[in-house]
Amino acid sequence: MPDIMQDFFIKASPDKVFEDVSTPSGLDKWWTKNSIGEAAIGKEYKLGFGQSYEWKALVTKCIPDKEFEIVITKADKDWKG
Q1: The whole model's pTM is what?
Q2: Angle CA(27)–CA(69)–CA(16) in degrees, nearest 5?
């Protein structure tokens, strides 16, 4: 599956952006309905989008205030990998 990359500018400090893309409370503000996880390499995230959409992801990159990456491990077929 090809990567999807998007660049966009956010008027916020790097620590605030990192918090909003890497913590459950941050993700729940803009992406998930409820999530559970820890921003650390090798940790699993549970990403809740509603009854039929309880997905999971693995943290593969985590450099505080700089980089955060997850790989979806349980989801609809077109989101995995």
Answers
A1: 0.84
A2: 45
